């Protein structure tokens, strides 16, 4: 676990960002203080970037196009005042990649992010569900410390539940990025990664 530390972001952020109860992240004060940005009941499908979402079994889905065919990138999981996502893939690395893309898409919308920089991420855990939570928590840490937003990711899951990844994206630019969903934490509640019927599936809930 990282010790508390004061780090200034390398991007210019809105004045009100921050949380007075979280001294290690003062620059998030305003974003969390704005109910219009944080309350799910004021976000149509959680943010405007999901305007192309369609109804699917178990919730709304954001699609991606590949080879002329549209397939589900992730499904939204309703959970009281929180929000989560569910992803599926043929390979374990694919579900971790989709979970990361869903994480960023719900937050700010992938369409608004450009690839300008990259970040290397390494995490490890004792189990797959823990690895999923640690992976997304590291992405949240990058956003909170640097304002870094991902657009594309490459993930490799190694034996003994180690994950290495490269995240491509850019620091947050308030003139172009509308942060519509603010995560307080990635939770272990209902977090799961499993293999069934020839595919991997993963689910995670975010505390907002």
Automatic annotation (TrEMBL):
It comes from the Bacteria. GO terms for biological process: tRNA processing. Keywords: Calcium, Metal-binding, tRNA processing. InterPro entries: Archease, Archease_dom, Archease_dom_sf. Transmembrane segments: none annotated. Residues 74-208 form the Archease domain. Gene3D superfamilies: Archease domain. GO terms for molecular function: metal ion binding. Belongs to the archease family. This is Archease. It comes from Desulfacinum infernum.
């Amino acid at each position: 676990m990282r010790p508390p530390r004061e780090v200034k972001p390398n991007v210019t952020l809105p004045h009100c960002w921050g949380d007075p109860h979280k001294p290690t992240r003062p620059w998030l004060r305003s974003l969390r203080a704005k109910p219009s940005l944080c309350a799910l009941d004021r976000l149509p499908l959680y943010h405007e970037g999901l305007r192309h979402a369609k109804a699917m079994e178990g919730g709304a889905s954001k699609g991606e196009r590949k080879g002329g065919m549209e397939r589900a990138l992730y499904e939204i999981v309703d959970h009281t005042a929180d929000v989560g996502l569910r992803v599926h893939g043929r390979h374990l690395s694919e579900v971790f990649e989709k979970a990361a893309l869903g994480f960023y898409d719900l937050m700010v919308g992938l369409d608004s992010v450009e690839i300008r920089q990259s970040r290397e991420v390494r995490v490890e855990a004792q189990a797959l569900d823990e690895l999923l939570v640690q992976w997304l928590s590291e992405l949240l840490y990058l956003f909170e410390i640097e304002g870094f937003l991902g657009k594309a990711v490459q993930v490799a899951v190694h034996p003994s539940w180690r994950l290495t990844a490269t995240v491509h994206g850019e620091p947050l630019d308030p003139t172009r990025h509308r942060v519509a969903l603010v995560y307080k934490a990635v939770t272990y509640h209902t977090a799961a990664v499993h293999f069934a019927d020839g595919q991997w599936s993963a689910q995670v809930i975010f505390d907002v």
